[in-house]
Prior knowledge:
- The chain is mainly alpha-helical.
- It folds into two domains: 7-284, Fido-like domain (Fic-like fold, Orthogonal Bundle), CATH 1.10.3290.10; 287-374, Arc Repressor Mutant, subunit A.
- Helices cover 58% and strands 4% of the residues.
- It is built from 16 helices and six strands.
- It has helices at 7-24, 29-50, 57-64, 72-93, 105-116, 160-170, 178-195, 202-216, 226-232, 234-244, 260-284, 287-303, 311-321, 329-333, 337-349, 368-374; strands spanning 125-127, 134-136, 148-149, 152-153, 353-354, 363-364.
- The strands form three sheets. A two-stranded antiparallel ribbon has the order 1-2.
- β5 (353-354) and β6 (363-364) form a beta hairpin.
- α7 (178-195) packs across α11.
Amino acid sequence: MPADGTAVLENLAFDLAREASELSAQLHPVVRLSVADLVRSMNCYYSNLIEGHNTHPRDIDRALAADYSSDPHRRDLQLEARAHIEVQQMIDERAAELPRPPISRAFIEWTHREFCSRLPETLLVLVNPDTGERIPVVPGQLRTRTVAVGRHVAPAPEDLPAFMGRFEQAYDATRLTKPRQVIAAAAAHHRFLWIHPFLDGNGRVARLMSHALLLDIGIGSALWSVSRGLARNSGEYKRLLMAADEPRRSDLDGRGALSQDALIDFCRFFLETCLDQIRYMRELLDPSELQRRMELYVRDEEGAERLRKRSFAVLREALLAGELERGRVPALIDTSERTARRVISALIERRLLLSASHKAPLRLGFPIDVVERWFPKLYPAT
C-alpha cells in the first residue's frame, strides 16, 4: 500500500469520487439499467482481449441469446464471454448476497468458481510447454503448483492461505479514509496479480474483483469499465504490473520487499485510467449529445423505411422518462392507436425498445446494431 501523503494519488482519488458521482446523475435510473447491460458486454470484450481472446461484439451478443457458432473455437470464446457477463451481472445486481468484502478470500474464490464453472472443458486445461502435461484448472481452487509469470515467481502454493489473509487485512476498506480506499483499490489490483492465487484466470478475476471493490467503496458503477482503458493501453498496463513485481530499489523505496515507487507508478496509471473512462462515458452519455446521435440514426432508418415515422419521439421519451406507458404513445406522436402500435412493434422488433410483456411499460434498449452510431468508439473499429 503506498504511503500516506502521496499527493498525486490522493488528488486522483478525489477527482474520481467527484466525477463518478456526476456520471451516475446523468441518466434516469431505468435507462442506467439498459446502459449497464451494454457496459457489461463491453467490459467482457476488453477484459478477454487483454488475455488475447478477441471475441467479436456480435458474437458476444449472440452468446447472450444462446446462439453459438458451429466453429468450436468461436463457440468456446462465446461461452467464455457469457460467463464473464453473468458473473459481473451477479456482482452488479446481487452484491448483498455475495461474500464480502471483495478483497476477501471467500469473494475471490467465489468469483473464480462462478467464472470457471461456466467455461467449456477446453478452456479449463493448461498444457505444460516443457513436458506436454495437461493440467486441469479447478474452479475456485487455489493453485497447488509453483508458477512463474514472466520474471516473477509467485508465492509457493503452501503459502497462499497466509498471503490471501494478509491481502484481506492490508486492503480492508473499513480502516481507511475514502481517498485511501480508492488508492487501495488500485494497489490491490497489482498485489492480487502478484500473489497469482489460481492456476489460470487470475487476470479476469482481478478485473472483476476491482470492479466489485470500486462498487463497494462507492466509486464504481455499471456505467463504466476500467477494462476498456486497460485494454486500450495494454502494453503499459502489463509493463507497470511487471515493474511493480520488482524488489525495492533502495532504502528510500518503501519499507516492504517490493518497490513502493513502482507500485505508486502503477496506482497512478490505474487511477488515471479509471478517470479517463469515467470522462469518456460521461461525454458519451451526455443526454443532449446522445439524443442528437439517436435522432440522426432514426432519421436515416426512417428514410430507408426500416423504421416508421415518428419513431424518434418515442425513443426520446423513453430516454428522458426512463419508462413509457404504451397508452401514452398515440398522444405523444399525435396518431391513432393502430399506428402507434405499429411504431412500437417496429421499435421492439429492432430491440430499440424493451418490454417485459406485451402490456408492460417500454424502456430504451441498446442493441449491437446501434452501438457504433449511438456510442462511437465504444469498441475498436473492425
